[in-house]
């Protein structure tokens, strides 16, 4: 074996020893004496099966980094490949740099083993405490999307992406094979997928693992890749073939960059599951079977054949040769790249170190000028689109807009004046806003949009994902994983803050006039709220200037997930930009121009653009029929501000909450989403029992905008009558208001079912200060 491959093999054996020993040992890390029961963990947890393949890839990645002087990021897709990732980081020294209590010596090796899957230690997957990782192993399917997002605008970066054959069965990963069509050679980096066929999931064979080589070759050629195969189980031959394949792939990419075209290469690595581990246990085959997936050899803390078999297995790696005196040997260290080129030390895996703040355009340049509240009608997302176009112009290599074919539908198409959609193939004369230079990333897969954006953010850049509100649920689990990653990263003490994950949800529940019930679901807010206000913020801007204020705020934040819900249809505009910024800073507040009696009989509150409009219309009804009734109007733009400081570090104080909402009058709260969320956020407040929340009640169909509000009880008539009844008001004006509302509901029903539109009195309603 050539010297360079002997070093690769030594590094690989060292990493395999470390990976296996993490699962089993709490002491005797170098096997300086025969193993004893007390050296063994009481609970043996972790996943061995995928680890040898991951260490094999890392070993060969190190070789090309050292020989070619390239920057590389390693994304480990197989879910619980933590032992392999930790082993690599410890060998290159980056783990000890981030975790000084785990030095690169015998004592550190002992601690490395002890802490794995252990109380107070580290998880069994490649999590935030693992140097060099951007990919949480808690859920499968997103590695290739993350790798592609990391490569966007990173022309000098190679992303080696390990994809397990179990992971390859997921829909998200299957779609991700198209991602290479969105990478522009020379502008973006090189993503090199390694599909690892070890044949088995946790208990059964994988689909790809049972496919013939010819089928796999045809499949990936059909996807547009040039697959290279490395297959077998004999280490020396596998090292030779993998080295040749890696060199061929890097050379091929260089040609593609130079020539501007060509099939991107990928590697198909077929090796046994649990390679180099126990071949049999108790007479049953293990290596190369599903039995190698997790803990291939269960070792009781007692003398017996399994204890001796474990020792024999570990000694096969020759730890005394690999770790003389407890430190990696010179041969092993010869394969460790220098400085930031180490896989565990690359700044691309700690993207906050590379982050450059966005150059935000002045919102004043795009804000609407209002003569009075409600005097101007406009589309909030149209206004935002013009600001985003300016933002993209100012940040040509640091910001991208992502969305599943809804940029134009959500009325953000002004961005196309700055940057069209990226063209994943030839551009035809009949195409619109499509270019190989485009930075608006559209593909009809929410999984891909989310995965690309996450990879982009994790490597230090900025972005925004726009979607229809109902279908953002497709990435519920991805959002959950990313938020957990940010939380864990913030607790490491060494990861730098990364740009926030920002969603803009439009075409929302209240304005799905032609799509109907399937497109009506505001529940993403509820899903996110459970993650806690220190990580998540939920914004419901009531108008265009408020949306501008929210956008400029969230795009300057770090280590957060910000969800903005804003309508795209023309609506009345309420706040100047100055007022909108002040309103956002407070989170919620009294709109004195609407109603602010010092001792209100009812407080009418609203969160969301359509609920705000209907609530204000309810105020005008009450002023018209019961002018003597004392009212207060409150608007909420930041839902999480409703929580007290004990739950939200930026939540409103109890004194301020009580000053705004009061502690005596009923609060009729008109909410954009499910009513339970408002109760959840306010249940610790003094006046919580006074809150009566209206919101989406899972009633929907294809109908007019007003009918949709009426079906769910957030319409102006329902809000006005509820305020009237809960305040205890009776008398002539109350009776007249009841009759008016009953008559208007009947007229609206007849009119809408005859014309397909709302009544002109409703459709053309405008705010008039009737005080």
From TrEMBL:
One of its GO terms (biological process) is carbohydrate metabolic process. Its EC number is 4.1.2.9. One of its GO terms (molecular function) is phosphoketolase activity. InterPro entries: THDP-binding, Transketo_C/PFOR_II, Xul5P/Fru6P_PKetolase, Xul5P/Fru6P_PKetolase_C, Xul5P/Fru6P_PKetolase_CS, Xul5P/Fru6P_PKetolase_N. Its cofactor is thiamine diphosphate. Keywords: Lyase, Thiamine pyrophosphate. Residues 4-353 form the Xylulose 5-phosphate/Fructose 6-phosphate phosphoketolase N-terminal domain. SUPFAM superfamilies: Thiamin diphosphate-binding fold (THDP-binding). Residues 568-767 form the Xylulose 5-phosphate/Fructose 6-phosphate phosphoketolase C-terminal domain. It comes from the Bacteria. PANTHER family: PHOSPHOKETOLASE-RELATED. Belongs to the XFP family. NCBIfam families: PRK05261.1-4 (NF003619). This is Phosphoketolase. It comes from Wenxinia marina DSM 24838.
